Amino acid sequence: MKGKLDLKGKKVVVVGFGRSGQAATRLLLRQGARVVVSERRPKKDFAPGMIRNLQESGVIFEWQDHNPKTLQQADLVVVSPGVPLAVYAPAVAVGVPVIGELELACRFLEGPKVVAITGTNGKTTTTAMVADILRFSGFKVFIGGNYGTPLSEFVVTRQRADYVVLEVSSFQLETTVSFAPDVGLLLNITPDHLERYLSFEDYARTKWFLFAHQREDQIAIIPKEIVDPEGRRETLPGRVFTFGPDKTCNAWLSEGGFSLKVSPYHIVEDYTFAGFKLLGEHNRLNFVAAALTARLAGAQAQGVKRALESFVGFPHRLEYIGCFGGVYFVNDSKATNVDATVKALEGLSGPIILILGGKHKGASYIPLAPLIREKVRLLILMGDSRHKMAEELRDLTLTRIVPSLEEAVALAISEATAGDTVLLSPAAASFDQFENFQERGDVFREIVLAYAPEYLGEDERVKRVTYH
Description:
The protein is of the alpha/beta class. It has 16 helices and 20 strands.
């Protein structure tokens, strides 16, 4: 990564004042910059004490709009993840440098090795897996980025760590110009965020930015079978390692476990999945990728074993809620795109009552068709995308259409019989009815726990859902 930026006395505009924008502002102040914050939301949405303290430190705030002149008169623009290109295009047009909060933070990061994980699905879980393996190997780890604490916050607070493990989104990678992790992992690329990008190829291109600035001695980890029509894997600057289905990879699944080949002598390490607590084959593959990443970064084999036995995952990611009257309930609200729902259906045994729907993100739902036909006995479509989904999926199985999640869950409970799995895996964003996928998942859990025992019977305390 390039060296520190000289920001003393420079006018820097921070676009977006969420968690990353706030952390970037504090870092910029520490570097002596003159900071202007441009935020579309009103001042009343933010803590008065925080705003007052920053104003006393010299920060100027512009609320409820992004003024093109302010951007064009800056020495540097720092954008928060997800800010549309059209917002900062006026700065680009006149040659003002534009970077993201991640790029800003990495310019002032000193000491720890950087491990970065990106992908369409599974990156939060895999990031946490990598961090756990490193911790169980005796290292001090900071985990953050797109998941948890912004990297700028770590830099500002002058924390100490052996490793910085970062979840990195396509939005963050868009605005990097030198970010080069010591170990970078690309989990997968499937259609997503097509409401933002010009095409799937345009979206995929941003994912590969993870490796664009690596040196020859740095490590790039990719799926063996990744779709790569532009041949990017052949031009990666770092050392390339792969994970996938067979022994031609550096990490692969085996019967009941997995194997790693990370030493220069090609010694194979074998591990068993006995004691692994997460549902679904995709979570097994995520752990394989995490283990390879952590071992290449410097973790010990014992750290892999301890993390494998102890990792319990996160809410809203194939989260087992309970079994009532023989009906299993699984919360996969984090499945905000089609591929994530495909993975959920692949990992669970039927018959399934599937709840789909939310805010449409531009992709086709047809990839769900074979699994719906095979495993889903009742398909419940909800939210803004319900009619679009119905056009593509309603002829595959018994299908019902309802406006809201509440009605969808009530219908699922009323129609469920012993042996069914009621699965919320929406294949769509949550923003039509909820603040985020967490709120959607919380509502699903609350409704299930409030009404399923009454209508179906008390919790049978089944500990897990069977998977293939």
